[in-house]
Amino acid sequence: MNKLIFTFIALFFLNNCSFNENSRIWKDKEKKLDSEKKITKIDIKEKKVVSEFNETAVIDLSSLKTSKKIIDNQNNFGSQYYKGDLKKIGNFKFSKLGEVNQLDFKPIFFKDGIIFFDKKGSIIRYNNNNKVVWKKNYYSKAEKKLKPRLNFLLDKENLLVADSISKYYSININSGELNWSKNNIYPFNSEIKKYKDRIFVVDLKNTLRCYKIDDGSECWKLQTENSFTISNIKNSLIILNENVIFSNSIGDITAAEIETGLIIWQLPTQTSSIINETYNFKVSKLVSDGNSIFFSNNKNEFYSIDLKTGSTNWIKEINSNIMPILVGNLIFTISEEGYLYLLDKNKGNIIRVTDLYKNYKDKKRKNINPIGFVIGNKKLFLTNSDGKIIIAGIEDGKIIKIEKVSGGLVSEPFIFNNNLYVVRNGSIVQYN
Fold first, then answer.
1. What does the domain layout of the chain look like in residue ranges?
2. Which of 5, 205, 348, 350 qualifies as a cystine partner to 314, CB 3.0-4.6 A?
3. pLDDT tens for residues 358-404?
4. Are 392 and 376 contacting, i.e. CB atoms less than 8 angstroms apart?
5. What is the CATH number of domain 54-105+369-432?
6. How much is the pTM?
7. How far, rounded to the nearest angstrom, does the alpha carbon of residue 168 sit from its chain's CA centroid?
């Protein structure tokens, strides 16, 4: 009985003291909660506010040299020869690629036409009159349903192909006939580069693979650290001084010997936590001037690293995942917010920052981002996610014209034979 009375008294006491919202215990807790509410969390990776800088500066480019490159193992295209008026003169049609969130595919250009592919993986060669010369497909019925995406590389009379469903093969560009076909374990996720009798490509497991051009046999492979998710951006490669340098989906830059595949140096640019965030992590293509390598990412980092050692020359806070362009001792790049940056190549000093989206209202510019750009003579041509091209002068950064290409997705622009091309889903538009 005494035990029962004691239990009842204890419960009564607890109910009116500890669990009573007016009790001292709860008042002390409320004070603690109030004090915690006043604590402000500071995110050290807070998005940087970008603004124009030295925007009235005019650069002297009177000695500018232009090139006619369409393929370059260093991705160093510079200012290309293009004096056109951006008037549409051609349209190469193909069946739409289906559900794609980016058009990061490059056609093969010839003086007498181009090569591209359609939604079922059919390779199509067109002449300059936009007519189909031949159309070939080397996929089974089941493979066609996977809608393979193709990456191309031209080697003399042969077209090398590496795709998104693990196949790689070679066809003759004149007839479209198959030379050989092979399968990899994993899909490919990079541009293709060649050196002498070999090609190089990176797959989704961050493995660099070296194949022989004549029969597709594997020379060697180099596995780098893998991520837990699939990246939605292509890895990049450059070839220089008997070495192949490539990026992977977690931000590592690796240099390997072409002959053996042995690592010369490796530069991790991100912490280990990025492995779990690779779907949102984006790195630009690598570009080299022969001494340094330049690239950037969407984590506010623009790098210059030494080609021989992989050591860092300098890093600048620029939020960009599109390929920079080198013109003499200058670097041109465009941030995700639409700002054109002009930097000194040697020291990384920012010379000028110009807002290329100044004609957009604030509400609209938040929903668009740059896709890629080229420089033709002294003009910059930037494609955007709203399907438009912005043309600006590179000497003063002033906007010259805005042209609509598509109502949907577009690719980066390409210059070849004094024409400019843009891929949209269903056709390649040609401008003079």
1. 54-105+369-432
2. 348
3. 999 998 999 999 999 999 999 999 999 999 999 999 999 999 999 99
4. no
5. 2.40.10.480
6. 0.87
7. 22
